[in-house]
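Record type: ASSEMBLY
Status: queued
Input:
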Amino acid sequence: MGTAIEVKGLRKSFKGTEVLKSVDFEVKRGQIFTLLGSNGAGKTTIVKILTTLLKQDGGTAAVNGFDVASKPDQVRKSISLTGQFAAVDEILTGRENLIMIAKLRHLANPRQVADSLLMRFGLTDAADRKPSTYSGGMRRRLDIALSLVGNPPIIFLDEPTTGLDPEARIEVWKIVQELANGGTTIFLTTQYLEEAEQLADRIAILHEGRIIAGGTLEELKKLFPPAEVEYVEKQPTLEEIFLAIVGTKGEK
Amino acid sequence: MESTKNYFFSDMGVMLGRSMRHVFRSMDTIITVCITPIAMMLLFVYVFGGAIQTDTDNYVNYLLPGILLIAIASGIAYTAYRLFMDKQRGIIERFHSMPISRSTVLWGHVLTSIVSNAISLVVIILVALIMGFRSSAGVMSWLAVAGILILFTLALTWIAALAGLSAKTVEGASAFSYPLIFLPFISSAFVPTDSMPTVVRVFAENQPVTPIVEALRALLAGQPVGHDIWVALAWCLGIWIVAYLFAMRAFKR
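Status: finished
Output:
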């Protein structure tokens, strides 16, 4: 298994505040790698550096084998970014959004690419409407679909489920899992522990500018004292109740 | 590096197509940009015009250049708005993380501004013709008029780009255009500067709108343009270069 992302001693300051002190981690190909951290921990800063939107102050970062600072064009060819807010064009329809990105990725048949992604993400019926008429989950799906145009091998998802309702969140999880099964490397940031637990092959915890712990969920669990067995009556969580009542209601 | 350069024009085409769709799908922008200057033209010609003393007997001829500049000044505000929204919604970041030539993200908006402003100027000139505007200008003079108007649009569009990229709120992104819309009023666009008090007159005669208006008026009347055209061009180029440098700095940040 090769290395998809390699980060060594990454540093970044904003106006004298050191956000990243020295960040090191490695992501193997085909993995779902989750960067866990509280708000303001610097997760987005790392994503921006890795996606060539921001230059680091020190250290190195390589994506798909290309150095982000010296070979940004090669990096951009290897990745796509789904940012914190669904970056879709509000005036264009869903289909036009996809065709636009396919043209910008210089694909041979943008229309076909758009149609198959619309189908895959259950957006065919909504294809000719503007995203302003979509639900939060549909917007997110379109947003992720835009990132898949041209099948980049590495995908960055910056807090993809923030602000989504539980159903939409589970939908996004399913998409991410499918992508990973197809061999795509996923770099995911989240502030939800549950999300990391659900998805990640490997988890890194970013705290005060450094990765303070990293590994598989099992490895992380071993860092703590063994679990004690206790008998507790398990109440359903509100989320479970909500999902049970709403059931398998399809997307309109 | 090479591959992104090869695609410069195709990427540019996609960007232009995208923001032209934005223009045509919000008809209110074109209407606002056309209706306000036309209303102003009607007001000045049929209400105030009788009381205004100019040395031409056809006040529409006198007024039109200033109206065109006002139309451009209000039209470019939408470029600032569109750029601001792109920045706000993360669209610029999405484009920037893709293998496309980066400058097309900005130039797409700039070209759109030129095309959409040109459309509204044509509409305004047609209305002026109905109101009695007549020009003895030849083809070369009309080309010169078009050139100055395009240059003026470019200069102002880059100011708009700077505003759109550095604004913190939507209001901020368009507020910058109000002084630009107001500038023609304190110039020779509506009345000759002779009647103004000294302080105002000095300002009016030395701000960019007056030489641009004078140059356009002379060209449209088929008269010699004198040195006004050079002052006008210098202003347009100067504003363009300064605004361009600042906007690019804001863009690269």
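Annotation: Residues 2-252 of chain B form one domain.
Annotation: Chain B has one domain: 2-252.
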